[in-house]
């Protein structure tokens, strides 16, 4: 097949993990007879520096002309003054909103090869394979807001309409049907009105999915259960910021935040694929970045936007075998053990394809 991919490296470790990802994609293309062409564009801090805008119109245009977007990371200390008018993160939020990418899929699984490195007992990590469905274009991130320069005080609002919750719930139930038929809806219905609506709507949508079991759990309890019984979860569906927070927590189970991929989807096959990790400015340019989250995001792109399941599995299996063979980046190395650089690790994965 032929596909055009909008490539948005962004800030910090973004460019280095993106480079290894495109290299991996070229290898897959050559092996399997696909032609991937790349259109690079600016986003985030680097876009602010060069154009004054974290999401320039030219970037939107490039993305509109592509079959999928691959993004690495945005942000950094030089752009994080809390009084600044433009911030790198606004670029990413606008991009998600512009393309109506309301469902963010964040799969988390554990790797026996890394159990030793995870600060939880191995018996708890056995068989962990969960999927966080994070609602991505509503909730606290997109509700009515007042900035500190617009009044004496400032606020954000958690807002949901019925259709917004419905479509997120459908994504979760359909995903569960392809997995282990279980959905956990995460909310804060004991306190928040928007979350009582969330619980009611998810319960209603569930009526269409009699083959899927549904339970409701409060977000604070869920944060605990993710550490005490992570293997009991299949699909979790939740509000935007809850998903942001719990996915970082869940990344500890996998071994590192650097391991998690994500897919942001709307109604069609178009999607935005990005690792869950940020720009990690403290290690940028040192060859210490873990490219796994980016590689797995490429695999999700192949699977969801291009229907290339075999090729997606090739990447996932190659990562498994690299880890089994002992290849480690700095973030997944236990104290005192040796690690290899981003590009050496990438070469190991490529060789295992
Ligand atoms: C994420 C990130 C983003 C978010 C930031 C960079 C806007 O933390 O994708 O998890 O909060 O959604
Ligand atoms: Mn986050």
Can you tell me about this structure?
The protein has 353 residues and is of the alpha/beta class. It has 2 domains: 195 residues, Isopropylmalate Dehydrogenase (3-Layer(aba) Sandwich); 136 residues, Isopropylmalate Dehydrogenase (3-Layer(aba) Sandwich), CATH 3.40.718. Helices cover 41% and strands 18% of the residues. The chain contains 12 helices and 12 strands. The strands form 2 sheets. A 10-stranded mixed beta sheet has the order 2-1-3-12-11-4-5-10-8-9, with helices on both faces. It has a two-stranded antiparallel ribbon with strand order 6-7. A hairpin with an 8-residue loop joins strand 6 and strand 7. Helix 1 packs parallel to helix 12, helix 6 packs across helix 7 and helix 11 packs across helix 12. The longest helix is centred in the N-terminal third of the chain and has 19 residues. The relative contact order is 0.16. The mean pLDDT is 97. Bound molecules: 3-isopropylmalic acid and manganese (II) ion. Manganese (II) ion binds next to helix 9.
């Amino acid at each position: 097949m032929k596909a055009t991919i909008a490539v948005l490296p962004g800030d910090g470790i973004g460019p280095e993990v993106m480079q290894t990802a495109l290299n991996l994609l070229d290898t897959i293309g050559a092996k399997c007879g696909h032609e991937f062409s790349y259109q690079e564009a600016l986003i985030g801090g680097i876009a602010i520096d060069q154009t004054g805008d974290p999401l320039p119109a030219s970037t939107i245009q490039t993305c509109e002309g592509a079959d999928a977007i691959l993004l690495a990371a945005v942000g950094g200390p030089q752009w994080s003054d809390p009084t600044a008018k433009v911030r790198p993160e606004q670029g990413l939020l606008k991009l998600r909103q512009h393309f109506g990418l309301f469902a963010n899929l964040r799969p988390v699984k554990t790797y026996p090869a890394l159990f030793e490195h995870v600060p939880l007992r191995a018996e708890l990590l056995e068989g962990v394979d969960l999927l966080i469905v994070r609602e991505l274009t509503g909730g606290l991130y997109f509700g009515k807001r007042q900035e500190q320069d617009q009044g004496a005080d400032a606020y954000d609002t958690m807002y949901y309409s019925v259709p917004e919750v419905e479509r997120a719930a459908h994504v979760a139930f359909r995903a569960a049907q392809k997995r282990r038929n279980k959905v956990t809806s995460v909310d804060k219905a004991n306190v928040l009105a928007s979350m009582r609506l969330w619980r009611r709507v998810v319960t209603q949508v569930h009526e269409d999915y009699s083959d899927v079991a549904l339970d409701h759990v409060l977000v604070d309890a869920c944060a605990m259960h993710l550490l005490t019984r992570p293997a009991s979860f299949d699909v979790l569906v939740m509000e935007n910021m809850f998903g942001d927070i719990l996915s970082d927590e869940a990344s500890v189970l996998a071994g590192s935040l650097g391991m998690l991929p994500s897919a942001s989807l709307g109604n069609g096959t178009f999607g935005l694929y990005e690792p869950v990790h940020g720009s990690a400015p403290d290690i940028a340019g040192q060859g210490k970045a873990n490219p796994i989250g980016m590689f797995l995001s490429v695999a999700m792109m192949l699977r969801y936007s291009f229907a290339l399941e075999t090729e997606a599995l090739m990447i996932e299996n190659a990562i498994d075998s690299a880890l089994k063979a002992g290849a480690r980046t700095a973030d997944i190395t236990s104290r005192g053990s040796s690690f290899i650089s981003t590009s050496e690790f990438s070469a190991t994965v490529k060789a295992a394809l």
